[in-house]
From TrEMBL:
UniProt record similarity statement: Belongs to the protein kinase superfamily.
Source species of the chain: Oryza sativa subsp. indica (Rice)
Residues the entry annotates as binding ATP: K69
Keyword field contains Nucleotidyltransferase: no
Protein name: RING-type E3 ubiquitin transferase
Top EC class for this record: transferase
Keyword ATP-binding carried by entry: yes
Pfam families listed in its UniProt record: Pkinase
SUPFAM superfamilies: Protein kinase-like (PK-like)
Molecular function GO labels: ATP binding; protein serine/threonine kinase activity; ubiquitin protein ligase activity
Amino acid sequence: MKTITIVYEQFRQWIEDKASNSSSGVSFIEFNPSEVDDSVPKDQNHCLGRGGYGIVYKAKLRNETVAVKILNESSRQGEREFKQEIAILKRIRHQNLITLRGACSEKFALMYELLPNGTLEDRLINEKQRESFSWEERVRVATSICTALVFLHNAKPNPIAHGDLKPGNILFDDENICKLSDFGISRLLQQTNDTGTPNHITEVPKGSGPYMDPEFKNTGKLTPQSDVFALGIILLQLVTGQSATGLRKHIVDKLEGKKLEKMHTRKQKMILEKLKILDAQLKLDDTSIQDAVKMVSLGLRCSNSERKRRPSLEIEVWPEIESMNKSECLHGSDEVD
């Protein structure tokens, strides 16, 4: 426990330094409309994806291959989301956040670094991709998401809540480093004297189905803990490989109060497999089984419907996930040797 505390304190200092210096050296280009028209091919071969804001195309602008997101005229999103994304991504950089290269205000177009290796959703839903999605990689993804969220929640001068964390918004670059994307409904949070928790209040809460914080949905108050809720569902998906819809209830009902953490490894594995909680594509040894149980426990705690009962991302969740990541890295190097 002492080691985890030391690691956490070191990480906290690093995050604070990164958050306060995150805008240094940030370059941002304002593209003109003709550049967008000339560079973006409007055909299916260059279409990378579609979302609530619009269509994402692969294009070449100023000798760099980028991803260009252009507002769809029929979208319910628009100028507000466009400006919000720029306001947030223009001033920060982090290895686990997508980089915004620039924008075109006249076209409501956003230009990002190209992340060519798909989404976390692809790796969880596509049977073939899930088969090759190892436990070590899943732990690394969980670590990267946690690191990015801690960075956002400690951003200066205002903490940032992503607000739409889900596998479809987690992309992979050419080195398989995952990055959070889609900050259109993210918010800069304000400190309050009444609760001490930074928040943003809205009359129209927005989010994505099973990843949306129930308290945010009911009260309109977005907090860092709203991202923790979504993280919890994703952690459960990384272990189970299952759809997010009804997943938490499904696992709670299956376990029927069983305290997996207190069981020996063989029984843990037997129960996880028998109850079909563990993704059948995963072949785990004893150490990894123990980590899978920890991840299920963290996922259930993070996705508690009551915000005050969710664990602290920095103090409880990140150190535990980082400990798993280091364990998997050491374990992997032992296997290579």
